[in-house]
From TrEMBL:
Localization terms from the record: Cytoplasm, P-body
GO CC annotation terms, alphabetical: CCR4-NOT complex; P-body
Stated name of the protein: CCR4-NOT transcription complex subunit 9
GO biological process: mRNA catabolic process
Length: 329
């Protein structure tokens, strides 16, 4: 059962690989399954059973990371699927098996003591081929969703030092364009996790400065967020709207932030500075200013608070700010 209050990373895990939190813990049994991961003939069953236990065994990430050959076995499962994604002939059974391996990777990525080593081993890069896939079948969707869940687990930390390491790593890879594509084309749940990852990157000053380093990066992010708003007018989602508004709000936070833009002048290009707030104000969808999302905003006052902050930052006096039902209590 999917918990609607859970974080996007957890939602991805729950949707793709359901766990059983109420099962009794038998340490000897779990240790044997971890050992069985090294045996190809026993690995599939061990992956299934361990993935069911991942939420009920707090030390499982430590046992997985520090046990001999375990992470190599999980990587073998990931790499073994590559031939099935290009050309796209991934079966449901293959998808379920690799998603169980990815769920255990997410378990490792989410733990404070194993997050750093997991990242330093560059294991997330092995998942990027899955994020590149575009086939819309359930097998591929679960594969993308569980892979996003691993990245989401990395950024879901309150430790600022760890988060900075994670964000610096992600910014050195292609994660932002991959997330933007999924935000534009994915299912609601995939969009939610991808937008959550972008949001976490933006909330860090390093990530915000990276996005706003050039007008092209900024405008690409703003364009995708705008397309998502248009789609949300047809298919409302309180959860997804919350992350979209939070991304917009963060882009509006710094009044002194400028973008490097290149404009044509006299047959040659010239670099000019453009204020991020001004650029955002010009492209902000009208649906965030009027009462299009009134019902969603009534359900989630925190999203209304972020939207109010966004419009205030941009000096926009939108209709949504004056509706009696949406005024601060």
């Amino acid at each position: 059962m999917i918990d609607a209050r859970a974080s996007p990373a957890t939602l991805a895990q729950q949707a793709a690989v359901p766990s059983s939190t109420n099962l009794a813990i038998n340490t000897d049994e779990i240790m044997q399954w971890i050992i069985d991961l090294r045996d190809p003939s026993k690995r599939e069953f061990a992956l299934l059973e361990l993935s069911k236990k991942r939420d009920s065994v707090p030390d499982l990430p430590l046992w997985l990371w520090h046990s001999f050959g375990t992470m190599s076995a999980l990587l073998q499962e990931v790499v073994a699927i590559y031939p099935a994604i290009m050309p796209a002939n991934l079966t449901a059974a293959q998808s379920n098996r690799v998603c169980n391996a990815l769920a255990l990777m997410q378990c490792v990525a989410s733990h404070r003591e194993t997050r750093g080593p997991f990242l330093h081993a560059h294991i997330p890069l092995y998942l990027y081929p899955f994020l590149h896939t575009t086939k819309v079948s359930r097998s591929f969707e679960y594969l993308r969703l569980t892979s996003l869940g691993v990245i989401g687990a990395l950024v879901k930390t309150d430790d600022k030092e760890q988060l900075l390491v994670v964000i610096n790593f992600l910014l050195s890879t292609e994660i932002i364009p991959l997330c933007l594509r999924i935000m534009e084309q994915g299912t609601e749940l995939s969009k939610t996790v991808a937008t959550f990852i972008l949001q976490k990157i933006l909330l860090d000053d390093t990530g915000l400065l990276y996005i706003c380093q050039t007008y092209e990066r900024f405008s690409h992010v703003a364009m995708i967020l705008g397309k998502m708003v248009m789609k949300l007018t047809r298919e409302p989602s309180v959860r997804l709207l919350k992350h979209v508004v939070r991304c917009y709000s963060r882009l509006s936070d710094n009044p002194s932030l400028t973008l490097d833009a290149r404009v044509a002048q006299g047959g040659a290009g010239q670099n000019v500075k453009v204020r991020a707030q001004q650029a955002l104000k010009q492209c902000l969808p009208d649906q965030l200013k009027d009462l299009t999302f009134k019902n969603c905003l009534k359900e989630d006052p925190s999203t209304m608070n972020w939207l109010r902050q966004l419009l205030t930052n941009l000096e926009i006096d939108g209709q949504v700010l004056h509706d009696e039902e949406l005024l601060p209590k």
